[in-house]
Amino acid sequence: MQKKYIFGPVASRRFGMSLGIDLVPHKTCTIDCVYCECGATTNLTTLRAEYYPTSDIINEIDNVLANYSGTPIDYITLTGSGEPTLHSHIADIIDHLKTHYPQFKTAILTNGTLLCDPQVRKDISQIDLAKISIDCVTADSFARINRPAAALDLKTMLDGIVTFCEEYTGKIWIEVFIIEGINDSENEILILKNLLTKIKPDIIHLNSLDRIGVEDWVRPASEETLQRIANALSSLPTVIVKRAATAAQQSEQPANITDAQLCQDITALLRRRPSTIQDMMTSFGCSEERVKKVLKKINAVCKDGMYQMR
Questions:
Q1: Which CATH architecture fits 6-243?
Q2: Which of 24, 98, 180, 252 is deepest in the core (most CB within 10 A)?
């Protein structure tokens, strides 16, 4: 079955095996982060709309999950290559998942920029886990790293995140992406710590560049910098994000998966984020030889030049 909105399950460094659901077109987002592995934002907006027909998304969910017997799923994740809370009917999609597929845990990956809107907070309140990105707590770093839509105000955004976390009853994970020389100063980390103390997250992930970002000047933060920040946040549940799973942790795909289906699954993954061969081996439970064979087939028919083997 050709999937338009759903991809995976893929191996996630923090979510285990994650079945992703894309709710907005590629790079429709409220910010344009310099480090984004999905590429530059092409539709920078704060406008909520039904970017994809809700009924089509729900129909595809049913087609995939009604008789699901594939790789065990740890989370169904509202994510993809844009900001999922921009979809104005996200609550209907979450409700459908909770009502018809309660055996699956749900998560959302959000940049938190729209949580100042009470309707957005209500719309995602039933999700099991909210992973919220907070990279910046000063105006300068917000402008330089996140490059927000003009309508966004940093203080209003951060206040909205705090309010959501006070109201929300599910798990809260906070991700902080560190770029040395911009958001790693003592002042920035002190302000961040005060904010996180209010939020009381279940876990804080300190992250840095892992795959190629939008701007080539972005570099991975050093282990020393990440450890310094982790130490500064030591009174809070902080971990440094490590590299993706190893080959020994590969998932198990159904034995009868065809090359055609694997081509579709890998294509869906690569259209949303760059991935190494190891990433694909882990996500799809395949050997290196088979992944390379399928990639060659994809490259042979690809017309847009988006796949490059490195």
A1: Alpha-Beta Barrel (3.20)
A2: 24
